[in-house]
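Task: fold both queries, return tokens.
Query 1:
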Amino acid sequence: MNEKGREQPQNWIKGDESGADMLKRVWRVRPFLLPPPLHRVPLRVGNVLELVGPSPSAKTQILIQTAITCILPKNWNGIHYGGFDHLVLFIDLDSRFDINRFSQLLIYRIIEPYGESSRDYDKALYDLCMARFLYVRCSDSFQFLQTLKTLSRRLDKEKEVHGVSVHLLMIDSIGAFHWMDRASTFLSLKENSRKKLFLQSVSEAVVQDIKKLLQVHPMLVIATKSVIFWNKYSTASVEVKGSFMKNNWEERSSRNVTRNNQHFQYREYMPSVWQSFVTHRIHIRSSDDHSVTSKCQNSSFYLLEWLLPRLSFSDKIVVKDAGVFVDS
């Protein structure tokens, strides 16, 4: 063994990272728990969590509540908030994000330690959290791909400004442009025009760009996806966004159908490259049990079930003015 080879183990034992660097490295690898109702399975940066459900099913509400936990500090002026103290990047693909709802829930979380009777909130903390929430809206797949390709530089600048990195990448909703891109495959384009977008190529580009981004900026990815659910024993039609679709699907589509214990199904429409990219999946649908609605007149109830990994139980969640809660 040469002199250089003998020095390598000594350099490795000696180390050259500070305690802060070590904590950051361990934080990236060590799993963590998201707040309810996403608390059942520990997640790591680099994981891709997909929230699957019809519209509406509180998917965006869950994103907002999780984002607020991420941007809140762990402690502020002696008050424990239990936040992650990081930035959040929210990519809005269906243009349904409600900033007023986000502000309302953030204020509620800020005043929560002081009790329900408190009306005043810490405006400095509010401004800090709002600045940590990075919002981007895209109107088509071209803008989405362009955004992904330029995100790395923007995230570097945001880290310099705020002193903390982005911890969550949220995409609402990943299938928003699917049908437009699908329709484009049947339309003829003029000569010398932009290359035709095919479903597979778009999804491959999205997945590859997100993978490259995660290599430089380790984050947890949470994406919502709107789908159509129906009871497999029912033959009634369901209206979604102005179009009717019968529930007795053709036999050839059965391989694209996901089932759960409640005999409900949904047809998977995203290309396989995206499906294989997803590491965790949650299924959300409206609850058929309305026995408790009389207690909360202004609340909506849903069933939340982990499909990947498969858990043997479901959570009943309730959406109130104060946020999304697990109904015990």
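Query 1 returned. Query 2:
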Amino acid sequence: MPSLNLKRTSKARNYAIGIGLLLVVVFLWTFSNFLTQDLFEGGYDKPFLVTYLNTTAFAFYLFPFVIRKYWASYRKQDSISTGTYQPLRQDLSSTSEFTIDDVPIETRDTPLTPRETARLAFYFMFLWFIANWTLNAALGYTSVASATILSSTSGFFTLALGRLFRVETLSGGKIGAVLTSFTGVILVSLSDSARDHPVNPASVVAMNSRPIFGDFLALLSAIFYALYVIFLKVQIQEESRIDMQLFFGFVGLFNVFCCWPLGFILHWTGLENFELPSGEKVIAAIVINMFITLSSDFLYVLSMLKTSPLVVTVGLSLTIPLAVVGDFFLGKPTKGQVLFGALLVLIAFSIIGIENSKVKNEQDREEEAGVSGQHHQARLGGDLS
């Protein structure tokens, strides 16, 4: 039983670390939202280019991997040239009879190879880019309230897809928590829509002409957010199986080479004219956003692997109460409706945490019962012999 207690303690510690990382992400994304809002309201309304630059920042994660590979190769060559003894070992990954890449990702617990990591990053990149780009683009065609409400439905899709792929358990508490969080988001968004926000005149024309298209983009963003967190949880399961820096490095690299044609299509169709950022304020906002994306999305995926897709999806709604605090310090008035909506979001997040604790306790009891049964059968076998 000591090993089971140790495993339970390790799971609890990982879960607590995941919650802590999620709170850091909430803070970073809230700060990024204020920067992006100020950027768009200032006239630089370029959702595709902003998303493209933010995703490109992930490529910086490849530098440590390249340096490690170069250093390892240098040390190997140095050992050979100096005649240092090298122990004879069999490398299964290079034999002709068997290669580790032949084993499906889903059927083994060994760490992912660089090739598997690159393949996973390639698929993830499209899901991640579409989720972020559609949400940014939605703000140019519909109201902030509509975009926020529809994008917050990702909790419903995450719960449904998580149940379908057996990475989430369905319970009345979780359904109630998602509904509570959604209600809180609606209250805050409706209050926000009643304010007077300065916006880009070009966005006003688009907003008045195609609000249904904007609503569709926001809903599409919610679906793809749910898809990519479930996709990663199903494919990776535990964070110990993947080099997260290498993974995001490949995401940034694939983004650089695969997504730029979309920019030409948008420019040619007139949906988003290409314009390089100019002015110290705009450039500073974009650079800061790139660094926030570089760190926060890394922590976000790590948090999801340590907790669950539903926890991080609902947990990101915590940006609402944190934004309320930010508005307070910026001298913006806060209505009681907003405070009540933020409170509902906090309550929903707490319910999800309690429900997950119940599920983990039940799983631990089932595991202990299974081990006890095995020990009992082993003792009976010994007595019979």
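Both queries returned. Flag for query 2: The two ends are 25 Å apart (CA to CA).
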